[in-house]
Specification:
Layout lengths: L1 H6 L6 E7 L5 E9 L4 E5 L7 H16 L3 E5 L1 H4 L4 H13 L9
Parallel strand pairs: 3-4
Antiparallel strand pairs: 1-2, 2-3
């Protein structure tokens, strides 16, 4: 996913990007993130459907926006066929969060 993002001409996201609360406590590590725009991309594999993981994820996806982060969730279907629809979503999201140097195609 990171490779496709970079190859699409988007800024390289930080892998396993740490997210901190307003008081400086570590909240989570997101799969890919742009801390300057508070945008995260999370890949949802099959393991996220298991009961324990699902419950953990629900809480996590509630806490991240409370700290100002917008989370884009991706699945295997989003990576199929070159990922063009998902990459366009990432592009629009980054621009909406202030990434002014990105060409909106």
């Amino acid at each position: 996913m990171r490779f496709r993002i970079v190859m699409a001409g988007l800024p390289a996201p930080q892998a396993q990007c740490p997210v901190y609360t307003g008081s400086g406590q570590l909240l989570a590590h997101v799969d890919l993130g742009w801390p300057q725009w508070r945008v995260a991309v999370e890949y949802e594999g099959r393991q996220h459907a298991e009961d324990g993981q699902f419950g953990y994820d629900v809480g996590r996806y509630t806490r991240l926006p409370a700290e100002g982060w917008l989370v884009l969730r991706a699945s295997r279907a989003d990576l199929a066929g070159g990922s063009q629809r998902f990459l366009a979503l990432v592009r629009r999201t980054l621009v909406s969060r202030g990434a002014s140097s990105i060409d909106v195609r």
